[in-house]
């Protein structure tokens, strides 16, 4: 039975001014655009890395990187808007309690004749799990190169599976106009490990710990703070489906 040890947090992040990396097909339309209209954002992948904290035993840092595919409408003169798409990346770090464990775990799923060495031996140290829904696009703005932030960092490595989600290659250069996106992200981050326990089950329980974002004074973030956490997106409904009144209502039950 899987045990979750006090290491869970529900996060409501207002992510301001994410750099938008457009595709090659979208770059020309963005450079000629006079305005931009927000579209939607899709969460493609989440990379997770867990490291123990040396000065505080039992606690771990969880580094999370979110990869988004964002679409928008670029208005070029009086013509119809052109749909553009690109990549946005968001990094965050949380510190959670995961307890300690030094037992070695061996699994019968390991096959010594194949490339699955990660299943041959492992420890019972906690595993990080991130549950997230597609974010809400709160704001999007188009700026010239002279108005861009000097602290913008270039992405150096993008997983090939992320690049394959776009129709063409991504542009990471500094020339031309840029788009900055503000997203609202709901997620649940937890540490868990396998443990043999016997416990009663009552109902779903939402974590009470919330990682609040600091310094979000803009209007998009203020609006996002009043959005309720979408509990139904993470858990199935509690009420079961209604049962039929008689056997004939079930297809294939009676001749």
TrEMBL record:
Domain of life: Bacteria
Protein name (database record): DUF3794 domain-containing protein
Organism of this sequence: Flavonifractor hominis
